[in-house]
Design goal:
alpha+beta, 464 residues, Helix Hairpins, Beta-Lactamase
Length: 464
């Protein structure tokens, strides 16, 4: 095309044609590479000589100056091709480096987003394989001695090299299978080793990956340690809270029992009717004390262990009435209404656990509502579940408190020094509802608060 244009459009101007050939060579160099540009330079030189340097139509050059021009053209074309090829390679390398940096950044963000659905090291190698497009990635954790694998291809062999790298900080490579093993160091000490299979990557990228993995593993261990410390702290707080709660709750029945026995001992000859009444009080308060001890024991066990639900078909309305009857001393003169939908079918549930949950909800409503206001317990069927609504008419709670009300030990700052409590009851009731495959929610506004417990007929418990 250049030769045709030079002959037909701009005849007699070899300088312009030479620049056009040179531009063509540069385009070839930037598009393909140096080898292609060299061939193009030679072909362009021959075409330039044959078609534009006299005598035209031959490869003979009559004027020595044309030899100089032709040699200069060829040299310029080759140098320009080389420079263009280098610039192209550097641009490609820059793109690859940018891609490596982007992948490292993506991997670092993925580490921060790892959750607790699976072991941290397992998710770590999965994110690594996905981010860098590896066919296999393996992480050997020196502290636990576990191997964690990810990727579409099974990584077999080299386990000994992985362990050696984690122990001694050595490096291994298998170019035939595109495998590399490197130590994962925290400071100067190796804490793990990493094996990668897939596209080759620069050492700086490999070390960047190893550093991110070391940071991720140490972050996970720090979180585990923090959780252990928090669990120990809360366990100690639980013991203290339960002791305080039991001491407060036990005073009432113990005082009544003590008063009855003291009266009997002081006046053993009093009328039979009076002695019978005092013994009845002592007997009832003993049952109340036993119930308090059982509830405290259940709360302690449920708060630290997995809830095991032993289901049996039960009448929810009957359970509600039994709860109200057992709380008659606490209820005293309060109006507690029970509204049950007629024909409510039985529900598979753990009677002991659901009884405890309803007690906690009713007790909470009694404590946080004025003495002259009623508490209503309503049971009805909705879809595939029985819905229990416990409603009181207290001052209500703020929206931010509603989102935290089921947290263990949480108590509203506005009442924690006015109303006795442990901050455990609602948390345990929530766990019991979830263990039955249902839920416990709260809606509140000034003058009314409703706790809603859902118990499905077809239980698919989530555990605890």
């Amino acid at each position: 095309m250049i030769t045709l244009v030079g002959q037909r459009v701009i005849p007699g101007n070899p300088t312009t044609v030479g620049f056009a050939y040179l531009l063509f060579v540069l385009i070839i160099a930037s598009t393909w590479g140096f080898v292609e540009a060299c061939l193009s330079s030679i072909l362009a030189t021959l075409a330039f000589n044959f078609f534009f340097l006299p005598p035209v139509g031959t490869f003979t050059i009559a004027d020595p100056q044309h030899w100089v021009a032709l040699f200069s053209f060829l040299t310029t074309a080759l140098i320009a091709s080389r420079l263009s090829d280098k610039a192209k390679q550097r641009a490609l390398e820059a793109v690859e480096r940018r891609q490596d940096v982007e992948r490292l950044y993506t991997f670092s963000r993925a580490i921060l987003l790892i959750d607790n659905t699976a072991p941290f090291p397992k998710q770590l190698v999965q994110k690594l394989a996905e981010t860098f497009g590896l066919s296999a990635s393996v992480l050997f954790d020196r502290r636990s001695g576990d191997l964690h694998k990810a990727g579409p291809v099974d990584f077999e062999g080299m386990e000994e090299q992985l362990r050696d790298a984690a122990l001694n900080g050595t490096t291994f490579a298998d170019p035939q299978r595109n495998r590399v093993i490197t130590a994962v160091r925290l400071g100067a000490d190796p804490i793990a080793s990493l094996a990668l299979q897939g596209a080759q990557m620069p050492d700086v990228v490999l070390q960047g990956i190893a550093t991110l993995i070391a940071i991720g593993l140490e972050r996970a261990r720090a979180q585990d340690l923090a959780h252990q410390i928090e669990a120990a702290r809360q366990s100690e707080q639980l013991r203290t809270t339960l002791i305080d709660a039991m001491a407060h709750e036990f005073k009432t029945p113990l005082t009544s029992i003590k008063a009855a026995t003291t009266s009997l001992l002081a006046r053993p000859d009093q009328p039979l009717e009076s002695r019978t009444e005092l013994l009845k009080i002592a007997d009832e308060e003993s049952d109340h004390l036993k119930e308090l001890i059982d509830n405290a024991t259940d709360m302690a066990r449920l708060d630290i262990a997995q809830i095991e639900v032993q289901s049996e078909l039960s009448d929810v309305c009957q359970i509600i009435r039994e709860v109200v009857a057992s709380m008659r001393i606490k209820i005293e003169s309060r109006q507690v209404g029970v509204l049950c939908q007629e024909g409510l079918p039985p529900v598979p549930l753990d009677r002991r656990l659901v009884t405890l949950a309803i007690k906690q909800l009713v007790d909470n409503s009694l404590k946080y509502s004025p003495a002259g206001t009623p508490v209503t317990i309503q049971a009805q069927q909705a879809g595939g579940s029985v819905i229990l609504d416990i409603t009181d008419h207290g001052k209500g709670m703020a929206l931010q408190e509603q989102s935290r009300i089921f947290e263990r030990f949480y108590r509203s700052p506005s009442v924690q020094h006015q109303v006795p409590g442990s901050g455990l009851g609602l948390s345990i009731a929530h766990r019991i509802a979830r263990a039955h495959g249902g839920d416990l929610t709260v809606t509140s506004h000034p003058g009314e608060t409703t706790f809603r417990m859902t118990l499905p007929f077809d239980r698919k418990g989530e555990g605890s």
